Amino acid sequence: MISIMKFLSKINKSNYLAFFICFLFFIAYLILVLVKHFYFGTGYDLSIVDQIVWKYSQFKTPITTIQFYPFTSLLTDHVELIYILIAPFYWLYNNVLTLLVLQTLLVSFSGIPIYLLARKKSINLWLSFSLLISYLMFYGIQNALWSDVHSLAFGASFLAWLIYFLNSKNTRWIFITFFLTIICKEDMAFLTLLIGFIYFLINRNKTAVYLIGLSLAYLFAIFYVYFPHFTQDGYRYMAKDGLFSNLKFSYYYDSFDKRSVILYSVAWFGFLPLLAPLFLLPAFGDVTHYFIFGHLVTGAQGLFEHYRITLAPLLVLPTIIVISKYKHLNTKLVAIYIIIFALIFQYILHLPLSYLGKGWFWHEPVSVKDIQLIIKDIPEDASVVSQNNIIPHIAHRDQIFTLWPDNKNFINNSPCGKPTCNWFRWAGNPEFLVVDTASDWDIRHLLANRPDFIDGLNNLQKEGIIKEYKQINTAILYKIIKHP
Fold it and tell me: C-alpha angle 245/247/251, rounded to 5°?
C-alpha cells in the first residue's frame, strides 16, 4: 500500500522500529501456525478453505466436499469472496502453507496502520509502540491465528487499514480497503456501516455517507436477496423466525463465555476505550452481532476461537481517540499501564504466544513421520476420506471427505457384540481411507475419543466395509470396499 511505502521512505528509526516489531510478531506467529500444522494440529476449517481456494485457482466451482454439508458451494454458507482474490497466490505456490503465511503476514502487519494512526493523533512514541504491541498481542488475534485460517482474520486486517485511511482522508484507499473488508465475509459490512456512521457524525462528509450507503446496500443484497432467494437453506446462522426475532437484552450476559468476552475486551487496553463511547459503537455492534442476532450460535461467543479478532482494531481505535483527547494520558506511564494489562491477560488466559516457551509445543508427535509416509501412497487423483487433522495435508482434491464418527444399530450379527456399535459415515464414494490411531490424537483430531475411534475402524473391517491396504505403525491406509 502507498502508506507503507511512504512510511518506509521516511528515514526514521522509530518507523523502522515499528516495522521491526510487526516483523517479530510475524515470525512468532508464523512459527506457531507452521509448527502446529507440520505436527498435524490443524483441521476442519483450514481444510475447507484450502480446498475452496485451490478450486478457485483451478477455475472450478467452489464446491466443498469436506464440510458438514458436502457437495454444496461454500457461498451457501458464507459469502467470502476474498478467497477469489487469494487464489492467484496458489499459482505461485500451490500449497496450504500459502494460506497460513498470507494470513499471518496480513494480520501481523495490520499493526502498521495502528501505529501510524497513533502517531497521526500526536501520541508519543513510546505510547504508540505500546499500543502497537498490545494490539498485536490482543487475545482475539492470537486465538484467530492459532485457529486455522478464516476470512475474518483477513477482514480485521483490512479494517485496520480502513480506519487509518478514514483518519488520513485518503479517499482512494478508503474505498479500496472498504471493498476488501466487506468481501471478506457477509457480515463485515455491518462493521463498516457503524464506522461510516461515526465518521459521518464527526466530519459530515460525503465519503462517510457513501460508506453508509454502500454498506447498507451490500447487507440488503446479501441478507434479503441472496440468502433467501439464491440458497436452499437461507442464512443458517439466524433464528428461524428471522434475523430480528426473539431478541433479548439478557443475551449480552447470559453465559460465562459472554461475560468473559466483555470483561477481557474492555479491559485489554486498560479500560480506556470506555472513555470514548461513540468510537466504541462498532465494537459494541460486533458483540451485538454475535450475542444478540446470533444468540443460537453459541460456538461463536467465546474467547478462544477466531471470532474476536475484529475487536482488535475496533477497540484500539477508541483507545487512541481517548489518549489523543486527554493530553494527560499521553505519557510513558500510560504506555507501561497498557502493556501491563496485556501481559497480565497473556498470563491469565495462557494465550498461544505462551506456547513458544512450552516443551510440549516443540515435541513432535511420534506418528507424524508415519502419516507423512503413508499419504505418499495415496494416488494423486484418488478420492479419499480421512480424519480431521490429516485432511489439511491432502485437501487439493475434488473428492476429499471428512470421516464422521457415528453409531449403527444391528439386529443380528453385530460386529461389536452389542446392539449398537461405534461406526463412521462419510459422503460420496471415496476409494481410500487414511487414518492414524496413535495416542497423540484426541477428540480434536479424531472427532471422537480414541478408543471409540479404533473400535469403529475394527467394526468397519469386520463388516467388510474397508480392507487394509498399507500400514506404517499406527498410520493405516485402507481400501474402501463399499459404502458404510
Answer: 145
CB contact at 8 A, 476 and 435: yes
Sheet holding 466-472, edge to edge: 400-402, 384-386, 432-436, 475-480, 466-472
CB 181 within 8 A of CB 310: no
CA distance 162 to 286: 16
> 404-409 and 63-64: which strand pairing?
unpaired
Distance CA 311, CA 307 (A): 9
CA dihedral 9, 10, 14, 18 (to 10 degrees): -30
Kindly state the cell numbers that stand for 300: 461463536
Separation CA 237–CA 216 (nearest Å): 19
Q: What are 477's strand-pairing partners?
A: 434, 470
Q: What is the pairing mode between strands 420-425 and 466-472?
A: unpaired
State the 10-residue block means of pLDDT for the chain, 484 residues long: 54 83 98 98 96 96 93 92 98 97 98 97 96 98 98 98 95 97 97 97 93 98 94 81 78 95 97 97 96 90 95 98 96 97 98 97 96 95 96 95 97 94 96 97 96 97 96 97 93
Q: Would you call 124 exposed, middle or buried from its count of C-beta atoms within 10 A (0-12, 13-18, 19+)?
A: middle
Pick from 464, 452, 398: which is nearest to 59 by CA?
398
Question: DSSP 3-state assignment of 476?
Answer: strand
Instruction: Check: CB of residue 203 under 8 Å from CB of residue 278.
Output: no
CA 7 to chain CA centroid, nearest Å? 28
